[in-house]
Amino acid sequence: MSIAGWPPSERPRERMLAQGPSALSDAELVALFLGTGVRGKSALDVARELLARFGRLSRLLSAAQRELVEVPGVGAAKYAQIAAVMELARRALAEEMKARDCLTSPAAVRSFLRLRMQHLGHECFYCVFLDAQNRVIEAEELFRGTLTQTSVYPREVVKHALAHNAAAVILAHNHPSGVAEPSIQDQALTRTLAEALGLVDIKVLDHFIVAPGACMSFAERGLL
C-alpha cells in the first residue's frame, strides 16, 4: 500500500506537521524528501533501502551522483535536490561562523568542517582565516591529495594568511580511510605551521582532524 493509503496519523507528512520533524525517523524524513516510491514499493520502503545501502544517513546525503542514480526511485533530479540541501547546510554554517567569535562558538566551526570534509574520498587541507576579534574572514581548501596523504606547504599557508590579513588561523584536514587521531606527521606539521605563522604574528588556534563520524581537536587534546 502506498503512503497515501495509510491512516493520516501514520503518514510521515501529517506526523511532521502535527509533532514536528524531530518526531520522525531517518527513514520517514528521507521518504518525505523522495515524495513518491516505485512500483511495488512506497517512498518509505525506498528510503529504508537507501539507508541500508549506504549504512547511515550522513553517508547517504553525501553520496556521489553515480551512486544515487543507480538506486531505483532516485534519479538525477533527486540527486540534485540532495546536493542542493547539503550545500545550503554548508552555507548556513559558514554564515554562522562568520557572524560570531569562533572561540565562543566552536561547535559551528566543527560542524562546518565535518559537513565539508568528513565524507570526501581524498585527503584535503583547509584553513579558516580569522581577524583580530576571532571572526571568520574566509575558509578555504588549500591543498588536495590522495586517499592517504596530502602535501602541505607552509610557505603557501603563510602567503594565504597574509593575503587575507589574518590574525589567526584554524587548520583542518581529513582522514578519509581512518579515525580522527593525529599521527606523528600530523603533530610535526602542526608545529611547523605554528612556527612559520608565528614569524609573521599569526596564531594557530586549533587543528582539527576530521574522519567519518568524528572530529578531533588539537587544542582540546593539549597538543597546541
Describe this structure in words.
- The structure is a single chain.
- The chain is of the alpha+beta class and 224 residues long.
- Helix content is 46%, strand content 16%.
- The protein has a five-stranded mixed sheet with strand order 2-1-3-4-5, sandwiched between helices.
- The termini are far apart.
Name the descriptors.
224 residues; 5 strands; five-stranded mixed β-sheet; 10 helices; alpha+beta; single chain; elongated
Outline: elongated
Structural category = alpha+beta
What assembly state would you assign to the polypeptide chains in this entry?
Answer: single chain
Contiguous helical run count: 10
> Element order, helices and strands?
HHHHHHHEEHEHEEH
* Uncertain stretches of 5 or more adjacent residues: none
Give the fraction of residues assigned to helices. 40-55%
User: What is the spatial order of strands in the main beta sheet?
Assistant: 2-1-3-4-5
**Gyration radius, to the nearest Å?**
21 Å
* Biggest pleated-sheet summary: 5 strands, mixed
The end-to-end distance, rounded to whole angstroms, is: 58 Å
In terms of DSSP E residues, the strand content is 15-25%
A few lines on this structure:
The chain has 224 residues and is α+β, with helices and mostly antiparallel strands.
What is the fold's blueprint, element by element?
Elements: H1 12-19, H2 26-34, H3 43-54, H4 57-61, H5 65-68, H6 76-99, H7 106-117, E1 124-130, E2 136-144, H8 154-163, E3 168-174, H9 184-198, E4 203-211, E5 214-217, H10 218-221
Parallel strand pairs: 3-4
Antiparallel strand pairs: 1-2, 1-3, 4-5
